[in-house]
Amino acid sequence: MTETIKLGDIFIAVTRKAVKNVHLSVHPPDGHVTLVAPSSTRLEVARAYAISKLAWIRKQQAALRAQQREPARRFIGRESHYVWGRRYLMTVVELDQKPSVVLDHRSIRLIVRPGSSAQKRAEVLHEWHKSLLHAAVPPIIRRWEQTLGVSVSRYFLQRMKTKWGGCTTEVRTIRLNTELVRKPKDLLEYVIVHEMTHLIEPRHSPRFFELMTENYPAWPEARRELNELPLADELWGS
After folding, report:
1. In the beta sheet, which residues pair with residue 89?
2. Alpha-carbon separation of residue 132 from 101, 188, 228 (angstroms)
3. CA–CA separation, 74 and 95 (whole Å)
4. d(C-alpha 44, C-alpha 50), whole Å
5. What percent of the chain is predicted at pLDDT more than 70?
6. Cβ atoms 127, 101 nearer than 8 A
7. d(CA 151, CA 57)
8. Beta-sheet pairing, 165-168 with 173-177
9. How many Cα atoms within 13 Å fall on the side-chain side of residue 29?
10. Rounded to 5 degrees, what are φ and ψ at 24?
11. What does the DSSP 8-state code read for residue 182?
């Protein structure tokens, strides 16, 4: 059951679960707030915790409101699209053949069947995005398995509205947001290292950040850059 805490103009959805620690999150695109607490937590205790984090909540909400959003994509000619952080202009070619995508040094050519809808064009591009990630992700994982001394059993690509990645430590799997294909490739590496470090330390504890600093010293800059880049309208909503 979800309950709501009201702190001035901020509403916080409180859920109790079988977890060890309190998790407070501010979610894009609108900055709504959730708090997940251990099952035995009283609502007054959750409220006190939220009050102690009020300044942090407001800071996160302000950052989300200030963050740029890309215009809604229609998948038409001369439209801007990003691949690995670089801007390309789209060319749409209608042919009665299997849809595909071709990238050159200046443009991205989307080949679709005549009369295809924007939704169908989006699906073709998304499948191509996944193919790029499937080519890029395994070498990064293998390299960092040696550095970190951990093994990843599987990775998954999926659309994620509130996270760039995720990790299930029990089965050693990581999840990656397909939106990462639009960002510079070093930011993909940062997210992978972040999730793989959770295989050593599941929580965002001091030890976790010590490990990140030891193995990936540029992580604060990477995190800041990732969170400052424009959000994709079709993924995050308007």
Report:
1. 80, 107
2. 11, 12, 23
3. 18
4. 10
5. 92
6. no
7. 35
8. antiparallel
9. 13
10. -110, 130
11. G
Quick check: helix, strand or coil at residue 101?
Answer: strand
Over the stretch 138-174, which tens digit does the pLDDT of each residue have? 999 999 999 999 999 999 999 887 689 999 999 999 9
Amino acid at 18: A
Mean pLDDT of 2-28: 89
Residue 187: name the closest of 154, 162, 223 by CA. Answer: 223
Residue-wise pLDDT tens digits, 53-79: 999 999 888 877 766 556 677 888 889
- Give how far the C-alpha of residue 150 lies from the chain's centroid of Cα atoms, to the nearest Å: 22
Vertex 50 angle, CA 233 and 166, to 5°: 45
183: exposed, middle or buried (C-beta count within 10 Å: 0-12, 13-18, 19+)?
Answer: buried
Task: Note the pLDDT of residue 64.
Answer: 73
